[in-house]
C-alpha cells in the first residue's frame, strides 16, 4: 500500500498552510503515490498501458498463489518432505499436469527463497485482481487451506498468514475468523461431513459426535449455534455467492483452480444441509 506521499503531503501542508494546506498536500501526495505505484508495476507502463488481459491476470494469480504457498511452507524453517507432499496434493486437487504442474513447482520453489518479495507479490495480486474482495479472499483461503492441510498450524505459519492477510487488505480479526472456519472445515471433512476432499494429514481423529459435527457445520458457515434461521440462510447465501466458481473465474480466477472453488462450494453446501436437517427448516 502506497501512503508515504499522502502522509508527507498532509504533514507539510498542515505545517505551512493550515487545514487547507493539509488538504492540498494530501492531494499532491496522492498523485505522487499513484505515480510511484505505476512506475513499480510493469503492467501500467509501455505495451501494457491498457491494463493486463484476463489471461495475464489468471497467470499472475496462479504463479503468485504457489509462490506464496512456498513462502508459507518455509516459515517453519527448512521445507520438509511433508510440506512438498502437501503442495503436490494441492496440485493434484487442481488436476495439474505437464507444463502447468512444472510452473506450479517452479513458483513454489521461488517462494522458498530467502529473498522472496512477499509484500511486492501481494501488491501484484491486489493489482491483477483489481482489488476484488472475493478473489483476494479466495487467494487468502487457498493459503490457509494449504497451511492447514496436515491438520496443524505452526505458530510461524500463523505469523506469515497474518502478513499475507494484511498485505491483501484483511484485518487480523478477519484472518482469525477464516482460520477458525478452516479448522472446523478440516474436522468436518474428517468426520465425513464432506467427502469431496481427502486429507493427507498424519493426525489421528476420533469420530466426532453428531453434536460436534453440527458445531463444525455452524463454524464452516461462520455463524453461532444459537443463530436464527434467517441469519443462517444469509450467511449461506453470502458464502455461496462469494465462492461461486463461474463468478470467480469470470473475475480472473485461473481455470486450474476451478476444482478448488467447487470443493469450497460443496463444503458450504454440505454444512448448510446438515444444519437444515438437524434444525428442521427448509
UniProtKB/TrEMBL annotation:
InterPro entries: DjlA, DjlA_DnaK_co-chaperone, DjlA_N, DnaJ_domain, J_dom_sf, TerB-like. Pfam families: DnaJ, TerB. It is a single-pass type III membrane protein. The keyword Chloroplast does not apply. GO terms for molecular function: protein-folding chaperone binding. Residues 216-282 form the J domain. One of its GO terms (cellular component) is plasma membrane. Keywords: Cell inner membrane, Cell membrane, Chaperone, Membrane, Transmembrane, Transmembrane helix. The chain crosses the membrane at residues 6-28. The keyword Membrane applies. It is found in: Cell inner membrane. Regulatory DnaK co-chaperone. Direct interaction between DnaK and DjlA is needed for the induction of the wcaABCDE operon, involved in the synthesis of a colanic acid polysaccharide capsule, possibly through activation of the RcsB/RcsC phosphotransfer signaling pathway. The colanic acid capsule may help the bacterium survive conditions outside the host. The transmembrane domain is a dimerization domain. Homodimer. PANTHER family: CO-CHAPERONE PROTEIN DJLA. This is Co-chaperone protein DjlA. It comes from Vibrio metschnikovii. The gene is djlA.
Amino acid at each position: 500500500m502506497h501512503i508515504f506521499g499522502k502522509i508527507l503531503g498532509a504533514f507539510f501542508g498542515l505545517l505551512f498552510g493550515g487545514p487547507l494546506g493539509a488538504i492540498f498536500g494530501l492531494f499532491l501526495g496522492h498523485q505522487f503515490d499513484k505515480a510511484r505505484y505505476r512506475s513499480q508495476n510493469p503492467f501500467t507502463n509501455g505495451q501494457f498501458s491498457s491494463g493486463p488481459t484476463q489471461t495475464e491476470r489468471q497467470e499472475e494469480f496462479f504463479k503468485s498463489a504457489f509462490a506464496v504457498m512456498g513462502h508459507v511452507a518455509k516459515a517453519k524453517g527448512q521445507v520438509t518432505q511433508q510440506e512438498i507432499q502437501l503442495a503436490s496434493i494441492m496440485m493434484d486437487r487442481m488436476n495439474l499436469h505437464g507444463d502447468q504442474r512444472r510452473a506450479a513447482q517452479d513458483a513454489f520453489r521461488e517462494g522458498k527463497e530467502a529473498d522472496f518479495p512477499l509484500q511486492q507479490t501481494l501488491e501484484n495480486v491486489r493489482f491483477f485482481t483489481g482489488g476484488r474482495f472475493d478473489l483476494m479472499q479466495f487467494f487468502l483461503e487457498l493459503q490457509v487451506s494449504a497451511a492447514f492441510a496436515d491438520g496443524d498450524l505452526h505458530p510461524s505459519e500463523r505469523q506469515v498468514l497474518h502478513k499475507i492477510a494484511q498485505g491483501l487488505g484483511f484485518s487480523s480479526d478477519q484472518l482469525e475468523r477464516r482460520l477458525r472456519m478452516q479448522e472446523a472445515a478440516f474436522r468436518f471433512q474428517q468426520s465425513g461431513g464432506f467427502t469431496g476432499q481427502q486429507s493427507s494429514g498424519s493426525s489421528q481423529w476420533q469420530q466426532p459426535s453428531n453434536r460436534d459435527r453440527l458445531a463444525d457445520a455452524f463454524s464452516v458457515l461462520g455463524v453461532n449455534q444459537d443463530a436464527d434461521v434467517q441469519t443462517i440462510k444469509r450467511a449461506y447465501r453470502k458464502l455461496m455467492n462469494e465462492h461461486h466458481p463461474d463468478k470467480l473465474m469470470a473475475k480472473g480466477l485461473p481455470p486450474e483452480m476451478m476444482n478448488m472453488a467447487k470443493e469450497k462450494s460443496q463444503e458450504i453446501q454440505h454444512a448448510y444441509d446438515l444444519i437444515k436437517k438437524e434444525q428442521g427448516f427448509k
